[in-house]
Amino acid sequence: ITAATEAWDRGPAALPKPWRPQKPVLPVEGMRNVLITSALPYVNNVPHLGNIIGCVLSADVFARYCRLRNWNTLYVCGTDEYGTATETKAVEEGLTPQEICDKYNAVHTDIYRWFDISFDFFGRTTTPSQTRIAQDIFQRLLARGFLLEDTVEQLRCEGCQRFLADRFVEGTCPFCGYEEARGDQCDKCGKLINAVELKKPQCKLCKGVPVVKPSRHLFLDLPKLEERLESWLEKSWAAGDWTANARYITRSWIRDGLKPRCITRDLKWGTPVPLDGFRDKV
């Protein structure tokens, strides 16, 4: 408080000159370099005030604070444009996924500009550079033995000739009997659902009855990292500033044992899997 009072008494003339980072913003040796990212908003809707408050506004406030401190600050965000949500919206509006992304990226960009959110870079996940980065990460995981293959049971619509992602199927909840449960969760009882557990499942696209069929997928072999992760966590918990909630959730994951995590999907709209045998997936 004393330091703040003295700085106030000296007035604006005593303040250091504002730091103007180069473009693009890159780390500068000898400076405090701060990278700020906020959750990528889905591109299949018009953002409302709640989205902005819960997603980009807090990061924007922190970015402005960092710049006032003359820290070399990079604040990045962008629209999340791949996946089932985009395909579903495209079907609803009778557009292609790319047309949906172009339409709503422009809407998002205009709204954040109106609110004067101070992004240094606002991008998209449907760019060639994003594809190169994602596939490079994939190839490095593969080369180091951190990917494994397994078969999972999924619902397939023979009428549409496609495996159905969770959002493309609905049916009766196996827990509470609600007749409009989604393939991933029941909105009435709130329980998570595996789509093959649904009673009377129905394809949302053609209203046909899907069948259960096996599909090969690639998984991130998280159990292989468990021992190294546990060692790192002990050091980080001791030295870092973790919230009680973050510690509790992380401890529960470690206590229950990490499980392989599926990273491929039977979709058309997404980053292509660069591996023979899986090129029909994203």
TrEMBL record:
Compartments reported by the entry: Cytoplasm
Domain of life: Eukaryota
EC numbers, comma separated: 6.1.1.10
GO molecular function, one term: ATP binding
Top-level class of the enzyme under EC nomenclature: ligase
Signal peptide stretch: none
A GO cellular component annotation in the UniProt record: cytosol
Keywords: Aminoacyl-tRNA synthetase, ATP-binding, Cytoplasm, Ligase, Nucleotide-binding, Protein biosynthesis
Keyword DNA damage: no
Record's catalysed reaction(s): tRNA(Met) + L-methionine + ATP = L-methionyl-tRNA(Met) + AMP + diphosphate
One GO term (biological process): methionyl-tRNA aminoacylation
Family: Belongs to the class-I aminoacyl-tRNA synthetase family.
Name used for this protein in its record: Methionine--tRNA ligase, cytoplasmic
Lineage of the species this protein comes from: Eukaryota, Metazoa, Chordata, Craniata, Vertebrata
